[in-house]
Each structure stands twice: as structure tokens, then as C-alpha cells.
Amino acid sequence: MSQGKLIIFSAPSGSGKSTIVNYLIKQGVPVEFSISACSRAPRGEEKHGEHYYFLSPEEFKAKVDADEFLEWEEVYEGSYYGTLRSEVNRIWANGKHVIFDIDVVGGINLKKKFPNKALSVFIKAPSVDALKERLITRNTESEANLNMRLDKAEKEMTYAKDFDLVIINDDLKMAQKEAYQKVTDFING
Ligand code: 5GP
């Protein structure tokens, strides 16, 4: 397909959005995950071209100047993240729709760029306390990092109203089922 659709999943860190996105892919929904570019260093097992395209801040900036991004943002101080045009075109050329797991502001910006071709979905954790618990259980963040993510999460919760659809991830199985239904309806519609 020369131009498919875009399914945007955004949520505060720790809301379970990656689990839901991976579930859709496993269920055989014809979507492929958009790999973002970012300027932070890889963590743990992360690989270039799999989790992110890891760029130096200079390389990232050169791509901004060359207008290679559909959207980009300084998500955390000094750390840039963005969606490359080439990534979306690569996935469409592969006959798939593109699925995004991105920051709330990035999600809103992408939806504005593709008002009819994009479905934007906000995954909401039941509460900030539940978010905190999930982030602590995940145990990948330092204390300072955890607080930074929680501050950002509280602000992001207020953006839910700007999305086409809000799914509350209280019960993961129910949230997955709802996401599957809505996304397949949108793709087939
Ligand atoms: P992390 O460092 O934990 O991998 O990701 C940090 C944040 O960057 C997450 O909230 C994630 O959704 C966001 N993010 C990842 N890729 C993109 C992107 O392409 N654009 C924007 N705007 N945010 C992104």
C-alpha cells in the first residue's frame, strides 16, 4: 500500500501501553511498529534499529534541519525523540499500517498532521499511585528519573481529552480487548 493508516498510542510512562501495542501485533493486526529516532544512549539490551534508531545529538539535529521528521520533541531535558518520515513510508511500502508508541504531545501533533488517516488512542492508568507502583515494579529508573517521569505523567493525564479514544487500563485483558476491537474497526472502516 502506498499510503496506509496510522494508529497512535500515547500514554504516560508506566500505563501499560507497550503491552497493549505488543498484544495487537501478536494478534496479527496488520500493523508494524514505528521505530522512533532518539538522542539518548541505549539502555540494557536495547538495539539500534530495533528499539530505536539511536543517534547522537548532532545527527538528530542534522535530520531536524533536513526536515526528515514528521514530529520531534525534547521529551526529557537534553533527550530528543522523533518520528522519521522514512520510517512511515517504509512500513506503508511493506503493506502494513503504522502503529506508534509515543509521547502524548507527539501523539497530538501526529494526529493533527493526519486528521483522517490517524486514530489516536490515549491509555490511561487508573491513578497516579497505580502508575508509581508500576514504574517501581519495573525497576528500570533511578529515584530522580522516577520522579521526573511521575511529574510528566501527572501533566500528561490532562491531555486525554485531545485523543479520539481513551482506554482505561484498569484490567489489562479488558483494555487489550477494547484496543483490538477499536483498532480493527478503524483499519477496516
Ligand atoms: P524512553 O526513554 O522510556 O524509551 O521513552 C521516553 C518517552 O519518549 C516515552 O514517553 C515515549 O513515548 C517517548 N517517545 C518515544 N518515541 C517518540 C517519538 O518518536 N516522538 C515523541 N514525541 N516521543 C517519543
Describe the fold and architecture.
The chain is globular and about 45 Å long. The strands form 2 sheets. Strands 2-7-1-8-9 form a 5-stranded parallel β-sheet. The protein has a 4-stranded mixed β-sheet with strand order 4-3-6-5. It is α/β, with parallel strands linked by helices and 189 residues long. The chain has a single domain, classed as 3-Layer(aba) Sandwich (Rossmann fold). Helix content is 43%, strand content 23%. 35% of the residues are buried. The protein starts with 5 loop residues before the first strand and ends with a helix. Guanosine-5'-monophosphate (5GP) binds next to β5, β6 and β7.
Q: Which strand order does the major sheet show?
A: 2-7-1-8-9
Radius of gyration from the alpha-carbon trace, in angstroms: 16 Å
Query: Architecture, according to CATH?
Result: 3-Layer(aba) Sandwich
Give the tally of structural domains: 1
Strand content: 15-25%
Mean pLDDT: 91
Order of helices and strands: EHEEEHEEHEHEHHEH
Any idea of the CATH topology? Rossmann fold
What is bound: which ligands? guanosine-5'-monophosphate
Termini gap? 16 Å
